[in-house]
Amino acid sequence: VQDFEPSFYPTGTESVLADNTYHFGFFGITAGGWLARKLKAEYGMQTHPISFGVDHELYRQRPRREPHIKRVFFYARPPTPRRAFEFGLLVLEAVSRKLPDTQFILAGWDVGDYHIPFPHLAAGVITPEELADVFS
Fold it and tell me: Using CA atoms, how far apart are residues 63 and 93, in angstroms rounded to an integer?
């Protein structure tokens, strides 16, 4: 079980059908411990969590290039409702007003056609190597 599927849909037929799959009596191998605990507590499912994988060669602590610059990274995916793109923009706009010297980096989708009411870097779809660089 990779995700909590009912949350992918607005309350309705699809979310109820997804929710019902957790009552089938399957043993759940889950992506991470949070989901294993949730399925056990809320559905009585037997589960075994698998830790998330990470490439430690690529994603490692590195010296910050510009330690004096505050940065916020936002995974911006407008076509994926559960990513709450519009809500994220509202939050980031409020943060940008309170912390005007903060650099905002948006990646995950080409957001060039969207009105984004604060200064930002629109990185678009990036490679894992580029993501690691953004994080440093």
Answer: 28
Q: Residue 65 corresponds to which amino acid?
A: R
Report the domain count for the chain: 2
Does residue 15 sit in the same domain as residue 44? Answer: yes
Q: Are 7 and 82 in contact (CB under 8 A)?
A: yes
For residues 77 and 124, state if they share a domain.
yes
Q: Is residue 56 part of a domain?
A: no
The structure's pTM equals 0.80
Strands 28-31 and 103-107: unpaired
Q: And the tokens for 29?
A: 């191998």
In a domain, 64, yes or no: no
Give, as one character, the DSSP assignment of residue 121.
E
Residue type, 95: V
DSSP structure string for 32-79: SHHHHHHHHHHH---EEEEPPP--TTTS-----SSTTS-EEEEE--TT
Question: pLDDT tens across 80-103, in order?
Answer: 988 999 999 999 999 999 999 999
CB atoms under 10 Å from CB of 58, counted, come to 12
